[in-house]
Inverse folding.
């Protein structure tokens, strides 16, 4: 098509006296992309856009309407649906060309076809389903008359989003249950997988309907769970909170298979709901305590097999919030004391987490767990005090200023914290200059932290120090020692090892593409120093120290 004629075809399309016999030629001229430069196709799109309203009003032939719909964007289609230039009879063509998207649903509902719009929801994924309400709000903000989403459309969204949760709760142990309770593990896993996502986002848009929805014969139970899991407690008045209490402790999930997993997650969800809605402590404390005891007993959560080191901090925090069994709380205190003692590093300069001690790989989990357990009045104080004897001096100091710890525990920790400890203190190069053997100080840091990958702070400090020696570099993790910051220092080592042997240089090139973690540079270089017939035979790395 001659690009200079696009405007002509657009003018023809807009004329009322254009005969139907010309429709096919006009549509073809305006919908077939130009083969010329980009700007020529823009002329075509501009001409089509100006004539589109007239063409949709006059052209009835399905094939020609389909060509027009395929030639424009989804946003343009939605605009014409909302203006009723495209109707429900065009939906098969529209969905074949563009599939269903949120703006189309809103446009169809806005044109008065609410039931048809509700039926389109089944074609949306969860992400697009969440966007329907957003698109409705965009229409209101764009200057159109403000009106709420039609009840029929909102009901359809609620059934679609809350339906899976309702089915999962109706028979949670059935093979056909849409929720695999035993596989969803970790803090907040059930809250997001079963009671969150689209269900909560749908309820957020209609708080005025919550009192009616909690009494819904099919969705009501799911609504109560979702509100307890996500709604701010201020958003639930006393009557609405009381209506949700029957599901506070997740009684439907008390008999699930694999209780060591499912009852642990149930306990965590109960604790989170109590923390979110502290008012329930005064009106449902007995129910909570019974449910927590049931979780501990059925899941055997205090047994040595279940209560691993990784499980202790989270269980301590949850049981501190809802537990009333002094024996269980004392067992948790004892397990906190037996968690691995951390290595502690004090940075030379203020880092991203601020100045002060940096606890090792556990990130202060013993301090956090003990502080939470001590807030529970049922936790024996002598069990808490016994833990203090096992804490690192830096942990005692951290506990002495922990906001989560009760005042009495902070005071005791302050009294017991010694003035000196075995903390690794990182020094600046200026401070190292005052030492007779700075390299020995750097070596002592590495001796303390070993090859723990969580102590990159120490390893970076050694590598970046101007006192770092080749022997110290050989002890650093290979991916750190060969980084850009140490290239000038490590280059001579590589030349010494590989020498004039092309095979070793080829091996080095291959190895550098997949640098291993937690392998010392010296070990890495040893792997390259294979026997060679080359005249250059470097001595083994181990004979040079490190």
């Amino acid at each position: 098509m001659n690009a200079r004629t696009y405007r002509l075809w657009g003018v023809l399309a807009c004329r009322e006296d254009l005969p139907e016999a010309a429709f096919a030629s006009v549509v073809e001229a305006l919908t077939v992309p130009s083969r010329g430069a980009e700007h020529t196709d823009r002329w075509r799109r501009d001409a089509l856009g100006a004539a589109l309203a007239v063409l949709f009003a006059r052209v009835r032939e399905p094939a020609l309407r389909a060509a027009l719909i395929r030639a424009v964007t989804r946003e343009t289609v939605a605009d014409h649906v909302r203006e009723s230039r495209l109707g429900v009879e065009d939906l098969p063509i529209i969905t074949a060309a563009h599939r269903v998207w949120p703006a189309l649903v809103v446009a169809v509902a806005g044109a008065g076809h609410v039931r048809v719009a509700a039926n389109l929801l089944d074609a949306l994924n969860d992400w697009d389903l969440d966007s329907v309400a957003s698109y409705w709000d965009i229409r209101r903000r764009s200057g159109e008359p403000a009106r709420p989403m039609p009840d029929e459309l909102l009901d359809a969204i609620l059934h679609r989003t809350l339906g899976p949760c309702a089915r999962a709760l109706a028979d949670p142990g059935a093979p056909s249950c849409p929720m695999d309770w035993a596989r969803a593990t970790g803090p907040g896993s059930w809250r997001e997988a079963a009671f969150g996502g689209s269900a909560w986002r749908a309820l957020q848009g209609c708080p005025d309907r919550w009192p009616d929805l909690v009494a819904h014969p099919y969705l009501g139970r799911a609504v109560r769970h979702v509100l307890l899991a996500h709604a701010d407690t201020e958003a639930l008045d006393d009557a609405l909170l009381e209506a949700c209490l029957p599901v506070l402790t997740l009684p439907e999930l008390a008999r699930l298979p694999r209780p060591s997993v499912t009852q642990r997650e149930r306990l965590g969800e109960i604790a989170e709901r109590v923390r979110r809605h502290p008012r329930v402590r005064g009106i449902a404390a007995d129910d909570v305590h019974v449910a927590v005891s049931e979780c501990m007993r059925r899941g055997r959560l205090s047994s040595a097999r279940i209560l691993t080191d990784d499980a202790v901090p989270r269980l301590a925090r949850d049981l501190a919030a809802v537990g009333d069994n002094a024996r269980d709380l004392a067992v948790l205190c004892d397990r906190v004391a037996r968690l691995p003692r951390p290595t502690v590093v004090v940075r030379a300069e203020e880092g991203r987490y601020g100045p002060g001690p940096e606890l090792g790989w556990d990130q202060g989990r013993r301090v956090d767990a003990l502080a939470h357990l001590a807030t529970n009045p049922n936790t024996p104080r002598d069990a808490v005090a016994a833990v203090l004897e096992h804490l690192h001096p830096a942990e005692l100091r951290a506990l002495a200023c922990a906001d989560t710890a009760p005042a009495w525990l902070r005071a005791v920790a302050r009294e017991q914290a010694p003035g000196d400890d075995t903390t690794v203190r990182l020094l600046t190069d200026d401070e190292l200059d005052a030492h007779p053997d700075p390299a020995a100080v750097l070596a002592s840091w590495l001796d303390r932290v070993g090859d723990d990958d969580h102590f990159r702070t120490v390893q970076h400090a050694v590598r970046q120090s101007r006192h770092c020696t080749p022997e110290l570099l050989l002890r650093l993790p290979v991916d750190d020692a060969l980084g850009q910051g140490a290239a000038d220092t490590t280059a001579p080592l590589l030349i010494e090892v590989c020498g004039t042997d092309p095979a070793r240089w080829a091996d080095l090139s291959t190895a550098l593409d997949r640098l291993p973690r937690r392998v010392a540079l010296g070990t890495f270089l040893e792997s390259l120093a294979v026997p060679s017939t080359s005249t250059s035979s470097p001595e083994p790395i181990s004979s040079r120290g490190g």
In short: The first strand starts at residue 344 and ends at 346.
